[in-house]
């Protein structure tokens, strides 16, 4: 299929026809383009900021670059004969320089070149829907491009940080996740507001780089969407590292006085810091993309079916954060592969069996097996349902808990290795509904759990998946032994 170029009435406006138009060039949008181009569909990708998106410049890549030295040092300190070599502070300048490298110095030349290498057409500018299958792009040079999609428009615009409604907050210039991952120097004192993934990862990173960190959590503990012991172990480690973790505490006001942040809490405390990070939630970037022109509410999450097509539409898709199924890059990329396959199939007139949960066009894992790793020290990793979630869903389940101290490989990995594992077993079907690991390096274990949960592997069959000795993965044997009793 070829593109058709034509000039609109306005001399600054051009129009082009494509098979697929993707709004948003983050990893998720890039994956949609990759799949549709592989199927032979002409594809345009529109991006108002940097190709590569939030993950490449302000989330996954820079945050993990900040965290890796902290975790590596913590691991080394637990190894006899090595700990004396890593007693000094991290070299903050080198860590920040490497972070800049991993974020490509906030330049997207490489990402744009990759899109062009697969045959996608990149449009830089702000894209908005202008009725069915029509996208208007306002380019930085003042030009306007009208893109028309034969088959699909895909919304892959991601999400943004949400700030609380506190008077005068704009004047304080608070950090969100973007400032926390791209800061050019280490703040002497940092207040972190929130108890989720961004909060605990950034508290871990900046504390390791030398900041005095205070974490304020409105709820009862950290990582509230994981098993309770995950947040407890991470809070314990943060406290041991020198952070001040306060639960049941909300910020009531924030000001900046002579360059110093002053935060007052509902517990009557007055805290001073150089910077304050609010990691208090996300909102969809759908407020200014023309949803109203196709009968949808601007600024909302977009509900989709399992082929990622927006409910009630024949041509509009939403992938990644925009549909609110799972605000995780890897899960968004999975959705992108599903959406790309579904778009290509429909464009070719191939029937899609929507009743097939394991088909190439069904986002099954969005419901059954969403994995996540929190890169703190210790790491926390989970997939599927927690015990509480499984019980709320009406499953008859049993939780099996095992300490990693029972595994020889854990003791070899780190002196005094501390951690815990839980598997949630469906007693009626004898399959796993969820698995959680907390401990050093457990992020590398979670894919085995994801396979077990997504594949609904019977517990009896898991006995025949023999873990190598002596590795940390022997935790699987201990969990099965504990379940059998």
Automatic annotation (TrEMBL):
Where in the numbering of this chain does the Pyridine nucleotide-disulphide oxidoreductase dimerisation domain appear?
Answer: 370-476
Q: Identify its protein family.
A: Belongs to the class-I pyridine nucleotide-disulfide oxidoreductase family.
Question: What is the source species?
Answer: Streptomyces neyagawaensis
Required cofactor(s):
FAD
* Keyword tags: FAD, Flavoprotein, NAD, Oxidoreductase
The protein's Enzyme Commission number: 1.-.-.-
State a single Gene Ontology molecular function: oxidoreductase activity
Q: What is this protein called?
A: NAD(P)/FAD-dependent oxidoreductase
Q: Does the keyword Chloroplast apply?
A: no
| Any Pfam family | Pyr_redox_dim
- Annotated ranges, domain FAD/NAD(P)-binding: 18-329
């Amino acid at each position: 299929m070829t593109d058709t170029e034509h000039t609109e009435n306005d001399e600054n406006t051009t129009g082009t026809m494509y098979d697929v138009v993707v709004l948003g060039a983050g990893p998720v949008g890039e994956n949609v383009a990759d799949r549709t181009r592989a199927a032979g569909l002409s594809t345009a990708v529109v991006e108002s900021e940097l190709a590569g998106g939030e993950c490449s410049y302000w989330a996954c890549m820079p945050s993990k670059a900040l965290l890796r030295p902290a975790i590596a040092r913590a691991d080394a300190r637990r190894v006899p004969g090595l700990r004396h070599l890593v007693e000094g502070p991290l070299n903050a300048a080198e860590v920040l320089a490497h972070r800049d490298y991993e974020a490509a110095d906030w330049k997207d030349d490489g990402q744009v070149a990759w899109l062009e290498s697969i045959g996608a057409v990149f449009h830089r500018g702000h894209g908005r829907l202008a009725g069915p299958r029509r996208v208007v792009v306002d380019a930085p040079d003042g030009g306007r491009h009208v893109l028309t999609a034969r088959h699909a428009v895909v919304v892959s615009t991601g999400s943004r940080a949400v700030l609380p409604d506190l008077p005068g907050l704009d004047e304080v210039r608070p950090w969100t996740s973007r400032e926390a991952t791209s800061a050019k120097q280490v703040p002497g004192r940092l207040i972190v507001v929130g108890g989720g993934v961004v909060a605990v990862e950034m508290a871990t990173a900046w504390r390791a780089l030398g900041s005095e960190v205070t974490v304020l959590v409105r709820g009862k503990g950290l990582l509230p969407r994981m098993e309770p012991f995950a947040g407890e172990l991470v809070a314990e480690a943060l406290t041991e590292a020198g952070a001040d973790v306060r639960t049941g505490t909300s910020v009531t006001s924030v000001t900046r006085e002579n360059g110093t942040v002053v935060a007052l809490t509902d517990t009557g405390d007055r805290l001073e810091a150089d910077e304050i990070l609010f990691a208090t939630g996300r909102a969809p970037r759908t407020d200014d993309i023309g949803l109203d022109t196709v009968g949808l509410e601007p600024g909302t999450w977009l509900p989709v079916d399992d082929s990622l097509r927006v409910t009630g539409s024949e041509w509009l898709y939403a992938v990644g954060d925009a549909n609110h199924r799972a605000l995780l890059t890897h899960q968004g990329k999975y959705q992108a592969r599903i959406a790309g396959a579904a778009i290509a199939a429909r464009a070719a007139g191939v029937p899609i069996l929507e009743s097939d949960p394991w088909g190439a066009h069904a986002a099954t894992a969005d419901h059954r097996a969403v994995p996540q790793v929190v890169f703190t020290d210790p790491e926390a990793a989970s997939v599927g349902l927690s015990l509480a979630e499984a019980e709320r869903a009406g499953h008859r389940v049993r939780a099996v808990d095992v300490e990693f101290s029972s595994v020889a490989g854990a003791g070899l990995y780190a002196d005094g290795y501390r951690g815990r594992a839980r598997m949630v077993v469906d007693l009626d079907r004898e399959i796993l509904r969820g698995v959680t690991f907390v401990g050093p390096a457990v992020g590398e274990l979670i894919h085995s759990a994801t396979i077990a949960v997504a594949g609904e592997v019977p517990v009896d069959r898991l006995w025949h998946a023999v873990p190598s000795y002596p590795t940390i993965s022997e935790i699987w044997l201990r969990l099965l032994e504990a379940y059998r009793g």
